[in-house]
Amino acid sequence: MNALVQLAYVVAAALFVMSLHWMNDPKTARRGVFAGVAAMGIAVLATWAQPVVVHHGWIIIAILAGFAVGIPLSLVPLTAVPQRTALSHAFGGLAAGLVGTAKYYLWYGEGPENLTTFRMVAIVAEIILGYLTFTGSLMAAGKLQEVKWIPQRPVTYRGQNIINLGLLAIAAGVGIALVAAPTAAWAPLAFPVVIALALLFGVLLIIPIGGADMPTVIAILNSYAGLSAVAMGFVLDNKLLITAGALDGSSGLILAIIMCKAMNRSFANVLFGAFGQVQQAKQLAPGKDYKAETTEGAAQVLEQASLVVIVPGYGMAVAQAQHKVRELYDNLKKRGITVKFAIHPVAGRMPGHMNVLLAEADIPYTDLVEMDDINGDMPQCDVALVVGANDVVNPAARSDKGSPIYGMPIIDADKARTVFAIKRSKRPGFAGIDNELYFNDKTWMLFGDAKKVIGDLVKQLSDGGMH
Amino acid sequence: MHPEQVATAPFDYWSMVFVFVLATFIGVGVIRRVSRLLHTPLMSITNAISAIAVVGSIIVTGSDYPPVIRIMGAVALFASMTNIVSGFLITDRMLKMFKTTPHPPPAAPREGGSDKP
Fold first, then answer.
1. Any CB–CB contact under 8 A between A312 and chain B?
2. pLDDT in tens, A121-135
3. How far away is chain B from the Cα of A74, in angstroms, using its nearest Cα?
4. Which residues on B lie below 8 Å from A109 (Cβ)?
5. What is the structure's pLDDT at A436?
6. 3-state DSSP call for residue A208?
7. A437 and A350 within one domain
8. Which of residues 13 through 32 in chain B touch A, CB cutoff 8 A?
9. Residue of A nearest to B65 (CA)
10. Which residues of chain A have a CB within 8 Å of the CB of B115?
């Protein structure tokens, strides 16, 4: 029986690796989902069939409840995918924390010889990572969902980092004491202290983080959730858990590195830098003002273009303008104009967010171009249309050493012959920084709700085409 | 439980560390080649995969342990199962949308349909 279970686990581990391998191309990616489902099914059945599993009622109830909650969670609008992802990291962390807690108390009561030093290190790592991921991800999900009682703006106070790191140090210190004396009389009382500190640390870790940093933070939490699964594997002596957890952990790590590079910032700076707070909204180019343009004028310029590059940002998702953008894309395409989308790695609220939103609006993924690949074409671009993006097109990142986003790679929208920027109001963007691009001589602002402005553009273009 | 199991345990631990290190390298190698287009679905599928914690939860819930322990296992099992179901379903839902050719414009009845504000 044990050999069969191990065989099933080996097959499942191989399928998980293949599943991720197939994600390297949109053409094979769906095969990856089937491989993942098959692997999961095999692993669950092999585990359930083991003779140690004697009670089935609660298992069935918990699985059915998982389906009851999981199915609605998979049907959220794609603009809400970042929240859903954060929530699932929270569930992952909670599961790891609970299993670690259960195993500790079980062995404390019924088999203290199992609480070896190695296992105790793994248990302490599992509960700290698990519970901090749980509350941290819940906070992140709350911020993304814009829940009322969770502050959206970064919350900072004096000594914040010292308090946070101090808390973590105390948790680690108590954890080390538990590793040293796991069966001491005080140990079952010290264990909840570690849990409480980890839960608190998770909340405090996310409070100072603003919306623009969410892609990185979600990726880091993804990595923590994976590592807590690895720790669970060490505790339970289960190599499938270790493998799957390591795959998840490395995925989160790589995504976090890509996000950090795309913002020219370090992990430490994202987690402890309180981005939204550092910079004062600086008055740029005094005396210069925005030049506004009507949709009619913009439509005329668009008609004459041969290459149009659309730069989408989170504002497009907020305005729900994706489908109108698709209409604009269709209209321009019909006129023989080449239309491309320039996707910045941190546009949106999670890695790859823009691609999913535009794919949902039926825009072929072959026209979604990464920043590094499109920047070479920008000087040949007739019109750059900025839809709800701000910091990712701010030339200050290249030139202004004093700017908080200095050094961040950007999409070179300012190199296009004409720039149209759709903006809801004259307020600065998320980072609170004025955008030099908007004061550029060749930039024309289209003020208004992105959905409405693009709808008007489409209308102008269709009317013009009739006559 | 048996003394000899405890005695052989350290060897097992080292093999687990091996698995962890090698799996991390495989993960890094595979994930680096994932198309940037698919980073959102990648995150949701790795969520579902790391919910393999379900395996540990099933043992804790179903074994002959005290009820308090099993309740913690059942909650963990519920959480993992939620991640498996929603993770795989939403990944597939997103991947279905990635196409090389757009729909013909008239066949677009779901204009803004699923994305109401």
1. no
2. 999 999 999 999 999
3. 5
4. 66
5. 81
6. coil
7. yes
8. 13, 15-16, 19-20, 23-24, 26-28, 30-32
9. A106
10. 77-79, 320, 322-323, 360
Catalytic residue among A213, A330, A382, A391: A391
Q: What's the rounded Cα separation, in Å, for the pair A186 and A138?
A: 31
Q: Which of A233, A119, A110 is nearest to B1 (CA)?
A: A110
Which residues of chain A lie closer than 8 angstroms to B117, CB-CB?
A: 320
The reported pLDDT for the residue numbered A280 is 44
Q: Both A341 and A415 in a single domain? A: yes
Whether B104 contacts chain A with CB within 8 A? no
Number of domains in chain A: 3
Give residues with Cβ within 8 angstroms of A165, minimum separation 6.
Answer: none
* Residues near A337 by beta carbon (within 8 Å), at least 6 away in sequence: A302, A305, A306, A307, A308
pLDDT tens digits, residue range A287-339?
A: 567 788 888 888 888 888 999 999 998 889 888 899 999 999 999 999 999 99
Beta bridge partners of A342: A369
Residue A151 DSSP SS3: coil
pLDDT tens for B53-103 read: 999 999 999 999 999 999 999 999 999 999 999 999 999 999 999 988 765
Q: Judge if A91 and A168 occupy the same domain.
A: yes
Is residue A287 domain-resident?
no
Same domain, A34 and A147: no
Domain that holds residue A302: 295-466
**Residue A391 annotated as catalytic:** yes
ipTM: 0.88
CATH of the domain at A397: 3.40.50.1220
